[in-house]
Specification:
With 449 residues, this protein is α+β, with helices and mostly antiparallel strands. The protein contains 13 helices and 14 strands. The chain is elongated. It starts with 6 loop residues before the first helix and ends in a 16-residue tail after the last helix.
């Protein structure tokens, strides 16, 4: 029976079986983004499931092509792969890309549900549409600068438009924008034409919600213009810090910055899951937007610089956060240790106080018992005890006082009870012993004599 393999072992085996993305797409490591994109489109059309039904090998090849392109088309992922291979690429973080035209009704419904729940699902242009464009078999409608056209396009279908650009208009710059008042999802496409008249997809801009509508635009102003892919809502909710640092990660320059004089082709692709998309397309000459062009250039240059700054700041921020976390943990540990030590100290103090009071109380109780017993014994045996003090014997005064107080009285100096006849007799014997010396015992000892 074969040994059970862990998920990590299976993943490592999958990584080892993967081919180099550059080899998969048939490009070199020095290839440009446009060369990589062109190679991907040709291979994707060749191995697309729609053209290779019931062919598992073609399906696997298509998945491998898509996976490789997902890495090489992303500047950051491409850099990660170039530096450390597949292990540096987070495959599970890559967005899912679907060709909705190849999905059944049930799968399309699930995709729509996931999209509503916030799962980032990227859709690709139908292979059928791309193939028809390459074959030059698509109908094209003419556009006029400054005149918008409103239409409705079916889902996973495209409307193609052609427009002629003059030398003057080319130098002034061209803007193509599409809007949908009912917030339909669509893609704005730009096609390059080859020598045989075939159209190859060169640029793609997905619609985005802006206020009460969805829109997409392409700007050919003679200088690098950037596009921005925002992080998903799930990332923003899950990790706001990571979302912040990735906010400008998708700020990348467009591959094409100007349109040469001649005929150019745009298209609007319906990207809704189930219904057709209503839209309005318009192509403008940027000659009357001189100030706006300059403002855009300045702002995007600042954003580009800020993107580099944020990338550097991210590492510094993470270091500070790590230090802050370490200090916070140490603070909590030290606070806990101090509280524990103070608690032990208080317990020791409390124990000492209780023990001392108990000992004092016990000592006093024992002393009272001893004093009472001694007093009773003294009184009981007072008549029998004889003093053997010889005349002329010198006894220290302090010793006399101590003997008198402890022996005769059995209690302290504040004793007020009268002395017995036997006590007086004994005191008289002391007087004889001192040969007439004045016995200076303070009251109340002789108060009642």
């Amino acid at each position: 029976m074969p040994a059970h393999r862990s998920k990590s072992e299976k993943k490592e085996e999958e990584i080892q079986l993967r081919r180099d993305p550059y080899d998969v797409l048939g490009v070199s490591r020095s290839s440009t983004d446009q060369e990589i994109k062109t190679a991907y489109r040709k291979l994707a059309l060749k191995y697309h499931p729609d053209k290779n039904a019931n062919d598992p090998k073609s399906a696997d090849m298509f998945n491998e092509i898509t996976y490789s392109y997902n890495i090489l088309s992303d500047p950051d992922k491409r850099q990660q792969y170039d530096s450390a291979g597949f292990e540096a690429v987070e495959a599970e973080n890559q967005d899912l890309e679907l060709d909705l035209s190849s999905l059944g009704a049930m799968n399309t419904m699930f995709a729509a549900i996931f999209s509503k729940l916030g799962v980032p699902i990227k859709t690709i242009v139908s292979a059928t549409v791309l193939e028809e464009a390459i074959n030059g078999s698509v109908p094209t409608l003419p556009l006029t600068l400054g005149k918008p056209v409103s239409r409705k396009v079916e889902k996973q279908c495209a409307h193609f438009y052609s427009i002629r650009i003059t030398e003057k208009e080319s130098q002034a710059g061209i803007v193509c924008r599409v809007q949908s008042a009912d917030k339909s999802k669509f893609k704005l496409l730009y096609f390059d034409q080859d020598e045989n008249g075939g159209l190859y997809l060169a640029l793609q801009e997905d619609s985005a919600k802006k206020g009460k509508l969805t829109s997409a635009g392409m700007y050919f102003l003679g200088f690098p213009v950037y596009k921005l892919d925002q992080p998903s809502n799930n990332m923003v909710k899950r990790d706001p810090d990571a979302a912040f640092f990735k906010k400008l990660e998708g700020f990348q320059p467009c591959e094409i910055s100007e349109l040469k004089p001649g005929v150019h082709t745009f298209a609007v692709y319906g990207d809704n899951f189930f219904k057709s998309a209503n839209y309005t397309i318009e192509v403008l000459c940027a000659g009357s937007f001189v100030e706006e062009k300059e403002n855009l250039r300045v702002v995007e240059a600042q954003i580009s610089s800020k993107r580099i700054e944020i990338s550097k700041f991210e590492s510094e921020y993470k270091q500070v956060i790590a230090q802050f976390t370490e200090m916070t943990n140490k603070y909590a540990e030290e606070m806990q240790t101090i509280d524990e030590l103070l608690k032990q100290r208080n317990e020791i103090h409390a124990s000492y106080t209780v023990t001392s009071q108990t000992k004092i109380s016990s000592s006093r109780s024992k002393k009272k018992v001893v004093l009472k017993d001694d007093k009773k014994a003294s009184i009981k045996d007072g008549s029998k005890k004889k003093w053997s003090v010889k005349e002329g014997t010198h006894v220290p005064v302090r010793q006399v006082v101590k003997d008198v107080v402890t022996t005769l009285m059995g209690q302290d100096e504040t004793h007020q009870a009268p002395l017995t006849a036997n006590d007086v007799e004994k005191l008289h014997a002391y007087e004889i012993a001192f040969s007439g010396m004045v016995f200076g015992v303070p009251p109340p000892l002789f108060k009642h004599i």
